[in-house]
Amino acid sequence: MSEILLEARDVHCRFPVDRGLLGRRRELRAVNGVSLQLQRGEILGLVGESGCGKSTLARLLLGLQTPTSGDIVLDGAAITRLDRKALARRIQPIFQDPYASLNARKTIGQIVGLPLRIHAVDGDRRAAVIAMLERVGLSAQMMDARPDELSGGQRQRVAIARALILRPEIVICDEPTSALDVSVQAQILNLLLELQRDLGTSYLLISHNLAVVEHLASRVAVMYLGRLVEIADVDTLFRAPAHPYTQALLAAVPRALPGERFEPIDLGTAFPNPLEPPTGCSFHPRCRFASELCRRTAPTPTRVGTSLIECHLATAERAA
Predict the structure, then answer these.
(1) Which of 73, 87, 228, 258 is the most exposed place for a label (fewest CB within 10 A)?
(2) Which of 42, 58, 88 minimizes the C-alpha distance to 201?
(3) What's the helix, strand, coil split of the chain in %, to 5?
(4) Percent of the chain at pLDDT exceeding 90
(5) Considering only CA atoms, which of 143, 122, 192 is closest in space to residue 163?
(6) Which SS3 state, helix, strand or coil, does residue 72 take?
(7) Cβ pair 109, 126 in contact under 8 A
(8) What confidence tens digit (pLDDT) does each residue in 45-81 have?
(9) 3-class DSSP assignment, residue 316
(10) Residue 82 CB contacts under 8 Å (≥ 6 apart), including other chains
């Protein structure tokens, strides 16, 4: 049986929004009742459109944002009760933009070695930094270089080295290749996969690129308007997506061979205003299968086989 390492339990995160002097105060429900489990040693993909709440959920899991309600649990303990420094040693991020995430005034050696200094790690820190740089495909000669002397791919390798220097149990990768040239993306993804296999690290991989998720992840969670609408193993989700939103996302993915893709699906209206979410199922204004039940009543997450689906139609069909 797989061991649950990190878990979100009915997590909500709301932000108050003012509408000027005379406007009424409203709430943005960035994360709206999310329950999610990351198992030890797995790669879990998290996908969805911009604005659906992926990055907010990542900040919650990192302990950088406090939930409005619900719990984030690491290895059985609520992270709000853990020391921030101890938490950082166990969970590390890799950010989207390697040009913005590295301090331009520091050398590469200082950047990668900073976690060792903050956490007062014993031993030869310089040797540890060099070993990690070489592990991610960089040479020891780069120790004294600065970020502006490196390419985008090299900078992201530095970011990966910094994240892994403490050997964390979990790495949250927030669009780790989207800012890179296509020719470099595959190299970075293969590096992440190789390091994960060697170190046994658990990854939460956040990406708009479904091909990236299919290549790396073992399970996938699909997020829409602050909620998880489908969670399934990667083979099931890419072969037979259950939720209409997942189907639409996959239909937009280019495939190498004719006939390998789903028929295009029109999502209709634009992404709803998160300050004024639809009644009932949040996806129903864009769903070609929406019924009066969908417009009136929000579906509850239902376990069907190994998948978790939040859709009236999909759960009925899978259960039949």
Answers:
(1) 258
(2) 42
(3) 35, 25, 40
(4) 69
(5) 192
(6) strand
(7) yes
(8) 999 998 899 999 999 999 999 999 999 999 999 998 8
(9) helix
(10) 63, 74
What the block records as the tokens of 248 is: 């639409």
* 81-120 pLDDT, tens digit each: 889 899 999 999 998 888 888 999 999 999 999 999 999 9
Q: Can you tell me the distance from the alpha carbon of 44 to that of 215, in angstroms, rounded to the nearest whole number?
A: 11
Helix 182-199 with 152-164: angle, nearest 10 deg: 20
The answer to whether the CB of 112 falls within 8 A of the CB of 173 is no
Q: Which two tokens stand for residue 130?
A: 């060099």
Mean pLDDT of 216-221: 96
The single-letter code of the amino acid at 51 is G
- Give CA–CA dist 82/145, Å, rounded: 36
Mean per-residue pLDDT of the chain: 90
Beta strand pairing call for 307-309 and 302-304 = antiparallel
User: Can you tell me the mean pLDDT for 236-260?
Assistant: 81
Q: Which two tokens stand for residue 191?
A: 């590096």
Q: What is the pLDDT of residue 114?
A: 95
Taking CA atoms, 278 is separated from 35, 173, 271, in Å, by 21, 30, 11
